Amino acid sequence: MLFLLKEAVNKKGQIMKIYRLKPLSVCETNSYIVASEENNCVLIDAPADPDYILGEIESHGLTLKKIFLTHGHFDHIGAVADLVDRTGCEVYIHIMDKPKLTDDAGMLANLFRIRGHRNYTGKVNVFTEDDILKLDELEFDVLETPGHTSGSVCFICGMNMFSGDTLFSRSVGRTDMPDGSSTALMNSLMKIADLGGNLTVYPGHMNVTTLDAERKYNPYLRQAAEALK
């Protein structure tokens, strides 16, 4: 079942709808759909089960146009190849994590002994923090947040942040796997702590939260905020 989390107003005063899919993959990974006024949509991460994802999108009268990937681990990219085959949607990932789309070791499929997955070898649109990703009236600012991986990012649309595996409710992403860095993650958390406003945070795992709540209760983000003083 697709859950409507929020009807939000973007920075142009337009209504955007944010949906959360059920947790997918062996890692119970979150993914989100952001729908435009024209009923086109962006999928934030594509963990697994393309039949379910596409079925939910179509049941709400939406058309999948783009997939934005917060990073390149298998539990965030597992359904990409099938979804592109079936819809012709575009794929976007940070330039530093692009190689993971076709590298079983880099995406951690080998480490977690994942079988039967499809690597994505098609066209990829890469981006950096200088880019703004768009769909219809929707605009997503890219915040580079390396640490969990070198190409991890958060996407900010209006007062909403899709944080991938950088920031969770009361926790943060692991840095003890290949391409992780605790130093880089702390620097990324400092960037997040310094953001203005009380953004709603949609993480790659666990519950939706807010930036103010994490500033208050997340020990890692509190440490980052202290480092800014």
Radius of gyration: 16 Å
Sheet-strand content, in percent, reads 25-35%
Looking at the overall shape, the CATH architecture is 4-Layer Sandwich
Which class of secondary structure composition applies to the elements?
A: alpha/beta
CATH homologous superfamily (4th level) name: Ribonuclease Z/Hydroxyacylglutathione hydrolase-like
Helix content: 10-25%
Number of helices: 6
How are the SSEs ordered, and which strands pair?
Blueprint: E1 3-9, E2 15-20, E3 32-35, E4 40-44, H1 50-59, E5 63-68, H2 74-77, H3 80-87, E6 90-94, E7 125-127, E8 132-135, E9 138-144, E10 153-157, E11 160-164, E12 167-168, E13 171-172, H4 182-193, E14 200-203, E15 209-210, H5 211-217, H6 219-228
Parallel strand pairs: 4-5, 5-6, 6-7, 11-14
Antiparallel strand pairs: 1-2, 2-3, 3-4, 8-9, 9-10, 10-11, 12-13, 14-15
Helix pairs in contact: 4-6, 5-6
Describe the structure.
- The protein contains six helices and 15 strands.
- The strands form three sheets. The protein has a seven-stranded mixed beta sheet, covered by helices on one side. A six-stranded mixed beta sheet has the order 8-9-10-11-14-15. A two-stranded antiparallel sheet has the order 12-13.
- The chain has one domain: Metallo-beta-lactamase, Chain A (4-Layer Sandwich), CATH 3.60.15.
- The mean pLDDT is 94.
- The chain has 229 residues and is α/β, with parallel strands linked by helices.
- Helix content is 22%, strand content 29%.
